[in-house]
What does this fold into?
Amino acid sequence: MKLIVGLGNPGLEYSKTRHNAGFLLIDRVADRLNVQLDKNKCRTLYGIYRRGDERIILAKPQTYMNLSGEAVRSLMHFYQIETKDLIVIHDDLDLPVGKLRLRRQGSSGGQKGMGNIIDSLGTSKIDRIRIGISNDKNIDTKDYVLGRFTDDESKIMDQTLDKAADAVIYAFDHDFDEVMSKFNG
It folds into this structure.
């Protein structure tokens, strides 16, 4: 069993914000695979994709970004999922809009949801897909990440989400090193 977690904030007011890049990708993958995100357990909205005997959970924690680790840890415990079978998707202020960066481990890079997951699981050895949202030093960071993409950024993000969805689906059958090699950039 694998767990693919997209980070974001629940609620319509946050639905298309930069900080919800993880949620946007989970929605894109779910649409492609015809998976309904209709289960709600462990403070997480999720759906299960079945391929033969394997189950892959597509999840969106509903705890708000900064407490994502609590939901992830609970869901992993409930389904007895190991950290090696977890991929976390989140936004990254330090990457240009639309840039993908896949990594096997590392610090949170200041991303508070990822930081809470690292703290909750007690390890930074977590596969992750970071989606660039850029940064505007003239706007307060909180206001920027909770802001919406411009029209030009939305076009870029649409292409990026397609590429990132390809990466997630590719990861179902391939080692994450192979996924990184094919999709980083």
Notes: The helical segments are 21-33, 68-79, 112-121, 141-145, 151-171, 176-183. The chain has one domain: 2-183.
